[in-house]
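Need the bound structure for zinc ion, inputs here:
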Amino acid sequence: MKNKSLVSIDDYTKEDYLRILDKAAYFEANPVQNILTGKVVATLFFEPSTRTRLSFESAVNKLGGKIIGFTDASSSSVQKGESLKDTIKTVANYSDLIVMRHPIEGSARYASEVSKVPVVNAGDGANQHPTQTLLDMYSIRKTQGKLEDLNIFLVGDLKYGRTVHSLLMAMSHFNPTFNFISPESLKMPKEYKLFLEKKGIKYYEHEDFTEYIKEADIVYMTRVQKERFSDPIEYEKVKDVYILRNEMLEGTKDNLRVLHPLPRVNEINVDVDNNPKAYYFDQALNGVYTRQAIISSILDL
Amino acid sequence: MNSDKKELRVNAIKNGTVIDHIPANDLFKVIKILGLQNITNTMTLGTNLESKTQGKKAIIKIAELFFENDDIDRIALAAPNAKLNIIKDYVVIEKRKVQVPDKVIGIAKCVNPKCITNFEDNIVTKFTVVDKEHIALKCHYCEKITNKENLRLQ
Ligand SMILES: Nc1ncnc2c1ncn2[C@@H]1O[C@H](COP(=O)(O)OP(=O)(O)OP(=O)(O)O)[C@@H](O)[C@H]1O
Ligand SMILES: [Mg+2]
Ligand SMILES: [Zn+2]
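Answer from helper R.:
Posting the output first, comments after.
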């Protein structure tokens, strides 16, 4: 197989997800390995994303590999007007795997088609960020002991939030129930709801937090961004509705865990941080194991 | 039906293809999709003709030209009800409705302004047709949907 790129969460089957998660568990138990010795991983960040980049670089370092790349487009040849195709073809000569973050949607699929080495999509605009989804799934399985039959609450910007869309698609293999909490203008798009209906998966929509949260196994928080609102008054009206506070977790299930792709602004109040149900910082650490699993499985190691 | 006869008399072709039941508004899209602006065959275009079934229709008659199957199906994006009439010796010997294809390659433009296909030169667009009835195309690259209403040609 010439190209085993990971561009979109749909590139993987249910079996692939489980294989990656098992491998991630192995790396959590044995984080330092020298299986990437002599390999070069290029991290091309056409748009800065410190968190994601560090997580990938940490994963490569723990596996004994070397890293080349750039951390934002201004320090790359893109600045001189080079096409994406030319950049990728050149970098593919110097590396065994390319990790790419790019603001333009579809750039990762295109890069995977012109590259002779596999490409891992570390986010292409509002489109896909599959390694985030896999680390979310890893966090869910680790905290719940299973992926099946969970009640998952997705909160915040459900319209533009790519992480919630990918998570919805991936978790749809495991008979979930979904609860969507969002302002009217940022509701889950119709195409995803139709998809769930076709698969016979139950979902409920709410405009604010209610007693229902007592049934949640997972609460997945996202940021409601001001830029998403054409009307600033509308933003002012809703901005505090989607903030999770510690008192709201009273009476919730013991196994409930709160997830967030980070960075957070104010949508999870800091008073939640010390609650044992807050899981977002551990979630970020799981990202390293998951990326170790993804890189090593793509390179057949 | 009278007008049909008149039209036939004036524009009769011996051998060739008649593409009928094109929505009048989409005639030029069909011409562009098939690249008819570049051919030298005798060709008659009729537009804003009354149609019993679809408002104003357009028709294209091309002498000595016969299309391959999937070649013609590309026009289904613009003219999903178009009918192809193969003419031999002045008579219609075969009639075929166009079929909306499963994949659309190198014809349509992605509606998403942030799609790589609208940024980098020389990318051939690719779409999966996710709704054949209303025409909805899912971009192979950015995964966004382009509908018939916002369909532009590449
Ligand atoms: N020899 C010909 N030269 C040019 N045009 C022709 C010729 N024969 C038929 N046509 C045109 O081809 C189209 C189809 O012809 P046909 O006789 O099947 O009409 P129809 O019964 O109205 O078909 P439909 O049900 O598809 O509308 C008509 O628009 C007709 O004018
Ligand atoms: Mg007729
Ligand atoms: Zn696109």
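Comments: The longest helix of chain B spans residues 2-11. The two ends of chain B are 37 Å apart (CA to CA).
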